[in-house]
Every structure is written in C-alpha cells, then in structure tokens.
Amino acid sequence: MSDESIRLVTIGRILRRRRRLLSLLAVVGALVGYGTSVLFPPRYTASASVLLPGQWEERELLTQVNIATSSAVVDRVAATLGRPGVNGGDLRDRVSAKAADGNIITISGTAETPERAQRLSDRTAQQLVTFAARIAGDSSDPEAATGPEALRQKVVQTDRRITELANATDAGQSVESVQARTALEKLRTALEEAMKKLDQADPATSKAGMVVMGPAARPTGQAPPTRTQLVVAGALVFLLLAVIGHLAAARMNRRPRTEPEIAAALGSALLGRVDVPGERPAHRPEAGGRMNRVRRLLGVDTPWDVPTPQLSGDEAGRQIRYQRVCARLRDRLPAPRRLLVVVPEGDGTALRAAGQLVALAGNDPAPSSSSRGNPALRVVEVPVSRPMVPDSGAESGALVVLSAGSWTAGELAGLAGACADGGHEVVGIVVADTVRARPTPSDGDPPDHAPAALAAHGNATGESV
What we know:
Elements: H1 3-17, H2 19-39, E1 44-51, H3 58-68, H4 71-81, H5 88-92, E2 95-100, E3 104-111, H6 114-136, H7 142-168, H8 175-201, H9 203-206, E4 211-212, H10 227-252, H11 259-266, E5 270-277, H12 290-298, H13 315-332, E6 338-344, H14 348-362, E7 376-382, E8 398-403, H15 409-421, E9 426-435, H16 449-460
Parallel strand pairs: 5-9, 6-7, 6-8, 8-9
Antiparallel strand pairs: 1-3, 1-4, 2-3
Helix pairs in contact: 2-10, 4-6, 7-8, 11-15, 13-14, 13-16
C-alpha cells in the first residue's frame, strides 16, 4: 500500500472514530464564522465599464488602470460624493480597476449599501474619463486645445501666404522666378510633412476620448465573504485543524505498543496476550467523574489510532490463551499466594480481561501433586494520573493487565512505582487485545463452550497447553 493510501485510510479512521468530537468542533467553527460576520458589516460591489476607442498597447491600458485608482481621481470622487468624513484615503481601498478584453477598463466600487456602491463606481468612471481627457489634450478642454489648434491655424495661414507669393512671382521663365517658385513649393511641402507628423504624434487625433458604457448595475448580493461563506469556512477550518491535530498527535505519540516496550516500561516479563471481544460494557456510574462522562459522550475515551480489531477465533481458542497465561503465572510463583490484578482506570478492555483471569483462576481445582493451583486474584483499578496501590497485606505481588497503545511509558512507569511503594512486586504483565466476535452459530452447530470445557479439564490434570 502506498503512503497516499495509508494517509487516506488514517484520515478516514479519524473521521469515523472521532465523528462526535469533529462534529462538535465543526459547530463551534460555524458559530465563530457567524460571529465574525456579525462584527464585520456586509459589503456590496458594483462595477462600471469604460471603453477606450482606438488602438491601445497593453502598457497604456495598465497606465489607465493605475490612473483610475490614483489619488488624483479618487480625491475628486470623494469631493463629488459629498459625504462628510469620507476622503480619498478612505475610498482608495474600496475602489479597484482592471483591464478587460476589447480595450475596456472595469472599475469596481465597494460600499455598505448597494446604492452607495453603485454611486461610487459611476463617479469613479466619470472622473477617470474627465481626468484622462484633460491629460490627453481632448478638444473638450479649451485650455488644453489652444496650443495644437493655434499651430494648425498658423500653418494654414502660412500655406495661403505661400500661394499668394507664388502667384505674384513673375510668370516668366527667368532664372530668378523659377528659383523663387521652387523655394516656395519646397516650403509648402515641408509644412505639410510637419503637420502630418504633428497629427500622428497627437493622441487626440489617433485615439478618441474614453466613453463610460452606461451606469453601473445595482448589486443584488453581498460581496464575498458573505455570512454563509464565513460560517462554512469556520466549520471547515476547525474541522481541518482538528484532523491535523490528530495527525500531529499520532506522529508525536510515544505510547508503547510492542511487547518489549511494554515490558521495559513496567520492568517485568510479559506472560502473554489475551483476546477480548470488542463490545462496549455498560459504564458504571461510579467509574469516572464529570470529565470521564464528557469523554465518553464525545467518543474520546478510547484511542482512535489503534488498529482495526481482527476477527476473533472461537471461544475455545480464547480460553486457551487465558489458560496459558495462568500456567505461566503459576510457573513464576514458588507457591500459591494472593495477587493484586492492577488495571489502569478507564481501560475497559483490560478490565474485562482481568475479570476472565479471576474467573478462570477461581475455577481451578485444589493443588495436587501434578499442579500447584492458581493464585487467588483480586482486581483493583488504579488511576494513571495519581496511581495508588493498596499496601501489601493479604496480597503480596501484582499482575498488571492493560491494553497496548493506550498508555505512555511514563504512565506505565508510574504504575510500576505505585506497586513498589505498596510493597508489591510486579510478577507479570498481560496485554489485552480487542477482537471482533464471530457471528452466533446456528442451533445445529456444536456450542463453543464444549471444547473450552475439554481444554480446561486438560489443564487441570497437568497436561501441557
């Protein structure tokens, strides 16, 4: 399986096993998004289009776009709006412009109401056209047009004077008259070429003035981000952060999972692993306080990153595992004695496995020459936050039963230290694994407890398992 498949499987496991917590966090994120939308008033955006007739290069269009959002235009817009307390600096962040295809500049204005947004975009477009016409020397501006127009009038007058001089020259073929007429024609030709170059260099002759393509349409919806978008974004952000947090916690997780790691943390030998069918036991009212009830309600009372339980064998196979653990426990004890079965508080799987061990040890027959008998076991749940084990008295020794991957090395070391403080030697460790129970057999199939009884009888007579 590739790394990508593993990540997808991991994310799917988080979504499935932490769905209650993730749903709660998504609701909290949606509420935060709603609160953000309340703090920031809604905004509306209207757009007006300005047409630039003629041929324009891309850099020229960009120049007009920058002019549309410059202080020279925006300050004029603020003056025409006549809103007290609003200046060009306040409007500069609310006005934007961009060049579109077909020599069109789209000017957008954002305001608190649709009417204000429409008025802002229309006034900005009008001021852009006025300012651009003033710069380009449009004929609509008399002061800007006096220079080129006066020059053209002087050229026309000069051309007329040249014609008069040419007519007044002697029509004869003398050398002087021919030279005079030739000089006058050269002067006329030079003036015509100069006027052509002047017309080509004048933008007012090659490009017509800008035109506003109608008033801006009044916006009917809010500008993004809308309230709905903020609510959805808040829920998605909180959900994404929760998933990333779970992945980061799993990457930093140092909880012992393998048998050598668990044995090293508790400082004792592992007696074996037993299987517990994966069914939720009824929670006792006295087990845990308010925080534990909240954890169970949110579904965070069990680790999410434990592997999916494997399909269990029959009841006989599970009983054989418990019998082997009891046999190894007898081999480690010089004589039968009472032991404490220490279970971390909140570890339901380990608690059920400890109950099975106690039941199996209590059903063992009296000691004989071939079997020393099982020790008497008593289960105690110890909180891992502040572990406390009863002092050595009737019981001398402790058997630790726990599930893999649920506790850190420090918590396991704390359990071992609490056992030592109480005068109990940790004689062994049993790891409980959650498995999926097989479907209930039909009436015609032999019951599972029959092979289990045979296996238990063989163990009682001292046969090897």
